[in-house]
């Protein structure tokens, strides 16, 4: 399976398509976090953890202009029959989520709208992840330092 066509290789678990809606549902919709914390979790902190901030995770001159237009009132039922993943199951199958990405803009261009991907092959851009993210390694360094003391 996938020997001659890598798109047929079964993936581990799905997630990217549903991740923000699941976080909104379990966090904001259920009253555990506010919308500002949602933005931090799904954009700026994620970019900091992967050590690509401020190129990603920020709206500012010099950043990549990656923006999600979010509809907090929209809802849907997650299903393997409607997702865009190359797997035949969904770990969130049957869950109702509130909050949906209506439009996604990548590097200033609309790439997702009307529940459809609107890109052409080769339009993506590899984003190298520099090693040793200060966010990821700060606690490790602090722990190591305290153990030496």
TrEMBL record:
Q: Which organism is it from?
A: Cylicostephanus goldi (Nematode worm)
Q: What Gene Ontology terms describe what this protein does at the molecular function level?
A: dihydropyrimidinase activity
Gene Ontology biological process terms in this record:
pyrimidine nucleobase catabolic process
Q: Keywords, A to Z?
A: Phosphoprotein
Identify which cofactors the protein needs according to its UniProt entry.
Zn(2+)
What the record says about family reads: Belongs to the metallo-dependent hydrolases superfamily. Hydantoinase/dihydropyrimidinase family.
**Regions crossing the membrane:** none
Catalytic reaction(s) noted: 5,6-dihydrouracil + H2O = 3-(carbamoylamino)propanoate + H(+)
**E.C. number(s) listed in UniProt:** 3.5.2.2
User: What protein does this entry describe?
Assistant: dihydropyrimidinase
Q: Tell me which Pfam families the record gives.
A: Amidohydro_1
Top-level taxonomic group: Eukaryota
Q: Which residues form a coiled coil?
A: none
Question: Cellular component per GO?
Answer: cytosol
Q: Where is the Amidohydrolase-related domain?
A: 24-97
Concerning PANTHER family, the annotation shows: COLLAPSIN RESPONSE MEDIATOR PROTEIN (PTHR11647:SF1), HYDRANTOINASE/DIHYDROPYRIMIDINASE FAMILY MEMBER (PTHR11647)
């Amino acid at each position: 399976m996938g020997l001659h066509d890598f798109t047929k290789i079964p993936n581990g678990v799905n997630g990217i398509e549903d991740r923000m809606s699941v976080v909104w549902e379990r966090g904001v919709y259920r009253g555990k976090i506010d919308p500002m914390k949602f933005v931090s979790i799904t954009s700026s902190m994620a970019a900091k953890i992967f050590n690509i901030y401020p190129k990603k995770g920020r709206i500012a001159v010099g950043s990549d202009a990656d923006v999600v237009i979010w509809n907090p009132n929209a809802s849907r039922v997650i299903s393997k029959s409607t997702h865009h993943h190359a797997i035949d199951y969904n770990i969130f199958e049957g869950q109702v989520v509130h909050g949906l990405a209506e439009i996604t803009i990548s590097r200033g261009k609309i790439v997702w709208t009307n529940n459809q991907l609107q890109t052409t092959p080769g339009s993506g851009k590899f984003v190298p992840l520099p090693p040793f993210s200060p966010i990821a390694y700060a606690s490790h360094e602090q722990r190591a330092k305290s153990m030496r003391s």
